Structure formats: structure tokens, C-alpha cells
Amino acid sequence: QYLNKNKRLIIKKQNKINLKEKNMSHKSEVQKQQLSEMNKVMAIFKNSDGLIRPHFILTGPSGSGKSNSIQMLCDELEISFIEINAAQLTKEGTAGNSLSKALAPLGNSGDKPTICFVDEFDKLFISGNNNCSLAHETTNGVQNEFLKVLEASKATVAGDYGKYVDIPVKKVLFIFAGAFNGEENITIDRLREFGIKTEFIGRVGLVYNLQKLSVEDMHSILDKSHLFDTYLKLFPTAVKEEAAANIKEFITSSYENNTLGARLVNTLIHQYFIKGGKLGFEEAKQVSFQKPLEF
Hints:
Layout: H1 2-24, H2 29-47, E1 56-59, H3 66-77, E2 80-85, E3 89-90, E4 97-98, H4 99-102, E5 114-119, H5 132-150, E6 154-158, E7 164-168, E8 172-178, H6 188-194, H7 198-203, E9 206-209, H8 215-223, H9 226-234, H10 240-253, H11 263-274, H12 281-288
Parallel strand pairs: 1-8, 1-9, 2-5, 3-4, 5-8
Antiparallel strand pairs: 6-7
Helix pairs in contact: 2-3, 8-10, 10-11, 11-12
């Protein structure tokens, strides 16, 4: 019985290795290195049972797979994962979604190592806002609140019936992600120019940059898409290979002008099945060719 259990563990581990190699096989060397280092950081965090928390910042163009990559690594390492959106955060005491409310789900993770993925962190640094003093005050306020949490053992969060409760956060690794206007290879000095405080960078000193997804990356996302598989179950007459080939054709043809990144895959999946598997060039063009936003 012990041997059978040990054999199952070996097979499970090998399956994880095979999945990881498949996920990494089509990526560029730079991308592989970045993902490998992030994997190492998260493995150290887990293997230390959360005692070592190398918080880091993750940059990359919109749709470059920042959230997807972290979720993939969490699945491989079997680490709990929660996601909050920094663009919706307001300073404590003002109307809106404060950090104490956003972090409330951490109360369900118990005292086990957990990744808190803070998406759209760059949106805290408002550019072009006429009320610069308000933007500065909000930015500093939220940053200061994060500073208190980053090295604390407990955090005060909103509980039931308007009451506030203390929850353990000493085993939470924070990952701050954002597009930062699509700039490549962002450094710590550049982050300081964006408005991130020196005290914050002192606690979150690691920076990783993801590149624009390749065509192969996009195809791989389609191959592993739960949405695609769900549609196929709803439409049993659809041929998986044919549907995948058609969608991949549009992904490839629209790649150079795609500003949606990974999100384009789901958009095309919806379009394909809703239009009865007759997604033509004009329909694909409507969702594939987007003008970049002006900053």
C-alpha cells in the first residue's frame, strides 16, 4: 500500500513536470527565464511555509498573461490564490472599495501560504487627472495602507455586520501587477518615477517583466481554454479540431494589430459559437483590430 501511494505521488509529480514543460515549450528564452524565476520565488515562499515572502511587481502589456501566468504557477505549486483589483481601491475612510474590504477574502485562507494578486496596480498612479492633489492623496493613502500589511502579521479587514476583524496575513505573498503604459523592461528607478514610494520599493524590490504574447502563446491558451471546452459540450455537433483551426486562423491573421492580448481568445470563442460556427473575416475584424488607447 505504501509503495502504491509512493508510486502515485511520483506519477503526479511527473505529470506536473510534463505540464510545465508543455506550458513553457513555445515561450521565448526571456519569457522562460522570467517565469522560471517567479516559479522559484513562489516555491521558496511555499517551502518555507510562508515565512519567506519575496513580494514582487509584475509588469507587461495589457493581455500579456500576467494573471494567467501567476494562476498557472499557483496551480502547479498548489498554492491558494486570491485576486483584487487596485483600480477600484480608495483610501480608507473615503467612499468606495477600501483595502480592508478588498482583503476580506483572505480570512477564508486560514493560516496557510496564499498568493494575493493585486491587478491593475499601475492604475493607482493617475496620469492626466486635473485634480492632481486628489490623485496624489489617494495614491499615497493606498500605498501607505499596503505598507502596513506587507510586513505585518495581522491585518484589519471588514467583517460581517459592519464589524472589523483581525486576520493573519503573515503567510501572504503579494504580487503587484500592471501594464504601466505598456513600457518594456521597467526598472525600479522607472517605477519610482511613476510614483511608487521608496519605502514601498524597499519592501517589494523584485521586478519581473512579461512580453507581448506570441501567436503560439495565444494558440496554447485556446487549447487549454475551459470556455472553449464548455462551448463544445453545449454544441455536441461542433467538431473540436475544426473549431480550433478556424479560431487559430483568425488569431494568426489579426496578431499584428491585436491590442486585446490574451482576452482576444475568449472574444473569438464567444463570436464563433454564437454565430453558429460561421465566424467570417468581417466579424473577426470587429473584435481583432482595435486602436490602441491614447494616454
